[in-house]
Specification:
By secondary structure, the protein is mainly α. 62% of the residues lie in helices and 0% in strands. The chain is globular and about 60 Å long.
């Protein structure tokens, strides 16, 4: 049985996997150079249009939410706005960490900084820890974004889906990095020359958060709470369900990404805010392919990939695996 570990502890080499080699080429999933180059072509127009649609939708949902304060529609409007906000910020920050969203680097980095600030994770830590996640996907002791070892207990999953593990781990990392204190794991996946920048960035994040709180307190304004903090706290469990669906209860310490990663059945409305991360196996196979080309990549590979499922089926399957592992495997014969 596993127990929830701080993110930094969950990726220390004491746990498993002595020599991870990372994802290995699979012949039936290997694209020729010309096809891959075509899929890797970047754009400014397509992501800007997607970003505009997200902002318009968030503005509309935010208007409905604010209008519903004090009415019986407040809770549904809060959940809808908060879930959409949290999923969008998480997904766009993730995509920008790859540097593939926009053709223009300055535009990519600007959006990356803004979304990471709203998401709550300093940009260099987010980028380098995510790179380690792609290099050693589900290799325990090396995957820097594996929040706890698999298989997990029910308590661990409940702490995850309610956001308790997520918030406590990232607050802890934010605090330690602002003091210039790094775990051995962070030093492993972060170039040494980047650590001082990571400290400065983290302190800037903390300063912005503290400044926003101070301004709200000085003017006795609850706008920060009502427009950002409350919606994000309420919406984070939905975002965490999508994040958890990517790898929970999949196989550890394997080089076959089809066995360690899970794709979801595409949904055009959800994928608008999830930035096509439903195609998650495809994304792990070819992380340099931008989000808008993932459906085309899927069309080329789908005959050799597992059948995707919806988010409810994926989440139900995660808990089903826990149930089978916990009760049926230990039932007397």
């Amino acid at each position: 049985m596993s127990r929830p570990l701080p993110l930094e502890m969950a990726t220390t080499p004491e746990n498993t996997a002595a020599s991870p080699v990372g994802p290995m080429p699979i012949p039936e999933l290997t694209l020729d150079r010309k096809s891959l180059k075509e899929l890797m072509r970047r754009s400014n127009a397509l992501p800007l249009r997607r970003l505009a649609l997200c902002l318009i939708a968030l503005g509309f949902l935010g208007y409905l939410y604010v209008s519903a304060i004090g009415s019986r529609w407040f809770l549904p409007a809060l959940i809808l706005f908060g879930s959409t906000l949290s999923l969008t910020v998480y997904s766009l920050s993730h995509e920008c960490s790859h540097g593939t969203v926009f053709r223009n680097r300055w535009l990519n980095e600007t959006v990356f900084w803004v979304t990471s600030l709203l998401f709550g994770q300093e940009v260099l830590y987010r980028r380098y820890s995510h790179a380690a996640h792609h290099t050693h996907t589900m290799f325990v002791g090396y995957d820097a974004q594996l929040p706890f070892p698999q298989p997990a207990r029910l308590k661990t999953y409940l702490l995850w889906y309610t956001g308790i593990i997520y918030h406590t781990q990232f607050l802890r990392i934010l605090f330690l990095h602002s003091l210039g204190r790094f775990s051995g794991t962070t030093r492993t996946f972060t170039p040494a020359e980047e650590l001082p920048r990571m400290v400065r960035n983290t302190r800037l994040f903390v300063l912005i958060y503290a400044g926003a709180a101070a301004v709200s307190w000085y003017f006795s304004s609850g706008i920060l709470f009502w427009i950002w903090l409350l919606p994000k706290l309420v919406g984070d469990p939905v975002m965490l369900a999508y994040a958890g669906s990517q790898h929970f209860e999949k196989e550890e310490n394997t080089t076959d990404l089809r066995r360690s990663t899970r794709s979801l059945r595409p949904n055009r409305l959800i994928d608008l805010f999830y930035w096509n991360m439903s195609f998650h196996i495809e994304h792990h196979l070819y992380p340099t392919v931008p989000f808008f080309a993932l459906p085309k990549l899927n069309a080329r590979l789908r005959d050799h990939l597992p059948e995707p499922v919806g988010i409810l089926s994926a989440t139900g399957g995660i808990f089903h695996e826990w149930w089978v592992r916990t009760f049926r495997q230990h039932a007397p014969e």
